[in-house]
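Fold it.
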Amino acid sequence: MKLTLEGRTALVTGANGGLGSHFARTLAKAGARVAVTARRLDSLRAVQEAIEGAGGRAVPVELDVTDPASVARAFEQAAAALGPITVLVNNAGIAVTKPLVDHTEDDWRQVIEVNLNGAWRVAQAAARHMVKHGQGGSIVNIASILGLRVSAQVPSYAASKAALIQLTKAMALELARHGIRVNALAPGYVETGINREFFASGAGQALIKRLPQRRIGRPEELDGALLLLASDAGSYTTGAVFAVDGGHLVGAL
C-alpha cells in the first residue's frame, strides 16, 4: 500500500502553528483536500497559500477547540466545502512552563482545556461525523513523548498528553467496528520557529547532548509516521502510540 491520501478530505486543528502548518502541507502533498483550522482565520492565510501554491486544495475554517459549538460548525463548514472528512489530525495544543509549585489554577485549567478537553471535543465530533457518513476514517491525535516520560516544569502539559494517549486507546477500542482507526503520534523534540532560539542556546545544546542521536528532529521526519497512520498503509493499525523522538524514550536516565 502507498502512503497516499488521494481523494480524501482531512481536517487539521492548530494549523497555523509550526507543526500544524507542516502537517497540513504534508497531507496536501499526499493528495488530500485539507481544511486548515485555528481560532483566527487570518492566521491561516500562509498555510493556505503554501498548499495552493503547490497545487493542492485548502480551505481555512475557524475552530476554537474550547467551544463545542465552534467545533460542530467547523466540521459542517469543512465537509460542505471539501466533502466528507475521513482524516483528522488533532494537533491544537498549548504549554505552560513553570515549576509545579508555581502553577496556578488558571495555568492548569488552560492547558487541560485545550490539550485534553479540546482534543476530546474534536475527536468526538470527527467520530460522529465519520460514523454518519459511513466511510470510516483515521483520527491521529498529536501527543508527545512527555505523555510517556516526564520532564520538569511542565506538569499540566505532561498530564494532558498522558491522558490523551489513554483517550486514544479508548477511542480506538470503541470505534474499530465503524472502520475508524485512532492512533497517537508522539513527537520528541522537533525544531520549529518557536523553539529554534532555545535549541541554539547553551541550555538547548546541553539538552541535545543527552539525546541518543545527539540532535533534535526536523518536521519532515514526522511525515512517514503521520502518513502511515492517516492512510490505508496503516489500515491494520489502531490504538497505537507512535513515538518519533530520535531514541529519547530509550535514552539512559
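DSSP finds eight helices and seven strands in the chain.
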